[in-house]
Structures are given as C-alpha cells and as structure tokens.
Design brief:
alpha/beta; Molybdenum Cofactor Biosythetic Enzyme, Chain A; single chain; three-stranded antiparallel sheet; Rossmann fold; 15-stranded mixed sheet; about 425 residues
C-alpha cells in the first residue's frame, strides 16, 4: 500500500477546495475525515485528510499533526503537504509556525517552503506582503475576521513571530529569472541560516516555479494553489495509481437543510437571500445553553420538515452581536459554542431523515461532518458553484455542500440544493 501525496488540510472546506480542483483535472483524491480509516485506504494518488488544526491550541495541534503524520508514514506516504488558508489566517499564537517546526524536525529537512496565496482567487503575495483582492490584507475585510484578524500584511513577519527558525523570502523577482537561478538563490540563503522560505505568489508562474523547486522535498506547506500544482507536476512524472471512481451526486428522497456558521458579510447576504423563500431560524447563542438551543431548534425543525421545503438554521450574527458573544464566552469560546449548536442540530436532522446539507463556514463544516459520523467522502469536481460538493461514502450517502464563509453568489445555498436534486 502506498500514497504518492497526502494533503493535511487544517480545516474541512480548505481540504475540499484542493480535492475538488484535483478531481476537475482528472487526479483522483480520496477525502478522509477520520484518520482511523487510514490503514484501509489502499493505493492512492492523492489523499486529502481534513482536520481542525487551524484553531485548536498550539500544543494540541502539534501533537495531532505528529500522530497523523506517523499514521501516514505507516501506509507508505511519499510526500506530505501541510495545507493552510490561502490568506495565512493565523494570529501570533497560531499553529502554522509550531506545526512547521514539528515537520522540519521530524523529517530532518534542511528547508521548508511556505506558499500562501491563490492567484485564481486574487489572493497574492509580493515581496512577502499579502494582498486580498485589490488591497493589502490589513486594509481588507480580513482585518475584521472575528477569530484571526489579519492586521499585518507581511507574511514573513507573521510567520517569524511563530517560530525560532530564520524566515526568508523567495521573491517574485527571483522566481522569474528561472528555476536554476531560483535554486541557487535558495541554496545561498540556506548558507546564511534561512530554513523557512516564504514564497511570493504574484501569479501562477510563481506557483509553478516554486513547485518545481520544492516538489521532491518530503514535506512542503502552503495553500491550495501550491498543493494543486505539486500534484499536477507529480502526475506528469508517472502513471496515476488507485481506481478513480468518478463521484456521482445523490438524488432522491431525504430532507434538506442549510446550516450557517460564518459571520462574514458575504454569508449574511446569502442567508438573507435564502430566507426570502425558505423558513430560517436565527439562533442567538447568548440566550441559553448549547443543549437547550439545540433542542429548541429541533422542535422548530419538526414543525417545518413535513412541509417539503428546505429549512435553515443560522448562528451567524452582525458585528455588534459577535462582539457581545465574544465578551461573554471569549473569542474561541463563542466560536466553539456556535459550532456545537450547529453540530447538534445536524445530528438531530440526520436522525430525522435529512440527507442533504449545505454548511457555511470552515469550522462549522468540520463540526457538522464529525457530528454526522462521516469517515470519508467522495468529492465532486470543481464547477460553477466552486468547491464544496461531496458525498459520504457510507450507506447513508449524505450529500453535502461545504462552503467557506467569504465566497459564493448570493443564491449559492439554493443553487447547491438544486444541484443535489437534479437528475
């Protein structure tokens, strides 16, 4: 048994983004939600393992990653990619640096690449500075993220605050002088003590050149664009392995539900659009304990499921409400409470026969998938809705659309459900 390339995604929607784009270009990607099944996966071209590493305490994240990489080593994994958000979402207490420190030490590498950014989504890195759309990330909506406010645009500086290793740049001006020049530059920088290389990502040529330089390293790190490019380059080097059964959408019976966890402006507009034609329950997480709010929500669901329409549940709130919740429960406490409520609702809905779920928010998606007891999923190719369409590989065949909070059209919830219904 062997795996050519394992992507360890630090949240569930990010992992789906990689897997769906690989499926689109014909590279099979098995999506694993429960590491306990790793000994059973067989030969695979690409394995995407979804985790919740992004926001758990740093020591716990490192221990989890250590255990997971050992499990991947045991099944013959050739290359490991630690995948984080394309906008490098992380505070000074974040997990990217500590997780990288574990990886470079465990695999005795002399260098480690960091490749945030995703040109196709207009997330760029130039001279180490992150741009979100047409603004420095510190001047964009990401500055107001409720959990990881990005107020420093210098990604090398952000990373350096998380690690004792020396962080250097692999800039666009070097990459565009060609792979041989860039390799010499990396070697020269290593001679000065640089071990971590923050790679520019001005365009897809940067991504391709960076992948060519680092693709034979045992461990690499970065965002979606670099992971997809590495898998593509490895595919050109050899035949694909493992059967590639093209996933098929789930059709037929089963209730439908939308679960909204993200508090981004984009998600709030999507929720309001869905509520124009469908019943949606807004949940104030400050009102009561988790189990009480979950119980009330499921009682509400019982009154609406028989109507034959999709129903929605939202713990999303406007900025003043988010601030109030965080003042009561703490930043992470408020987030975890909201996720626990949605997870409990999802579990109860599945027991009531709901088989189609749309979930908005990366951490909310992870909580819901785990609550549903899904161990692995088939991922549908990236399409007009983007990434996020997947199907549980168990007998229930639950169909899901897991969406990052800040992307998608206003009617994406309805579009996703319609896709699940279509013949």
């Amino acid at each position: 048994m062997s795996v050519r390339f394992a992507v360890i995604a630090d949240d569930f929607t990010g992992g789906l983004f990689v897997a769906s784009n690989l499926e689109r270009i014909g590279i099979p990607a098995l999506y694993v939600c429960d590491p306990d099944i790793l000994p059973t996966v067989g030969d695979q071209e690409v394995l995407v393992v979804a985790t919740r590493l992004r926001f758990i305490p740093s020591a716990q994240a490192v221990a989890t990653l250590d255990s997971l990489t050992s499990a991947l080593d045991a099944i013959g994994t050739q290359h490991i990619f630690y995948k984080y958000c394309s906008t490098f979402d992380s505070t000074d207490e974040g997990n990217i640096g500590p997780c990288a420190d574990l990886l470079i030490k465990k695999y005795e590498q002399l260098r480690l690449v960091f490749g945030p950014g995703y040109p196709d989504l207009r997330n760029y890195v130039h001279e180490g500075y992150m741009f979100y759309k047409d603004r420095l990330i510190s001047e964009s909506i990401k500055r107001f993220d409720p959990i990881t406010p990005m107020d420093d645009p210098d990604m090398a500086r952000v990373l350096q605050r998380q690690t004792a290793e020396k962080v250097g740049l692999l800039p666009h001006r070097v990459l565009h002088r060609g792979s041989e020049f860039a390799r010499d530059y990396v070697r020269d920088q290593q001679d000065t003590g640089v071990r971590y290389f923050l790679m520019d990502c001005v365009d897809n040529d940067d991504v391709a050149l960076g992948a060519a330089i680092f693709r034979h390293d045992r461990v690499t790190t970065g965002a979606d664009a670099l992971a997809i490019e590495l898998a593509s380059q490895w595919k050109k080097e050899g035949a694909a392995r493992g059967p590639h059964d093209r996933p098929r959408p789930v059709r037929g019976q089963g209730g439908e539900a939308v679960l909204v966890g993200s508090c981004s402006d984009v998600t709030l507009r999507q929720r309001d659009h869905f509520a124009l034609r469908n019943p949606v329950l807004d949940i104030d997480i400050c009102e009561a304990a988790d189990d009480v709010l979950t119980g009330r929500s499921l009682e509400w669901a019982d009154r609406h499921l028989d109507a034959g329409r999709a129903i929605g549940f939202s713990v999303a709130a406007d900025p003043p409400s988010v601030t109030r919740a965080q003042s009561i429960f703490g930043v992470m406490g408020a987030a975890r409470k909201a996720e626990a409520i949605l997870a409990g609702i999802a579990k109860g809905l599945a027991e009531r026969g709901v088989r189609k779920f749309v979930v908005s928010g990366g951490e909310s998606a992870g909580a819901v998938v785990l609550a549903l007891g899904i161990q692995s999923m088939q991922v549908l190719p990236f399409d007009e809705l983007g990434a996020g369409s997947c199907i549980s590989r168990d007998d229930r065949r639950i169909s899901l659309f897991l969406k990052p909070g800040k992307i998608g059209a206003e009617d994406v919830f309805s579009q996703a459900l319609e896709k699940m219904r279509s013949p």
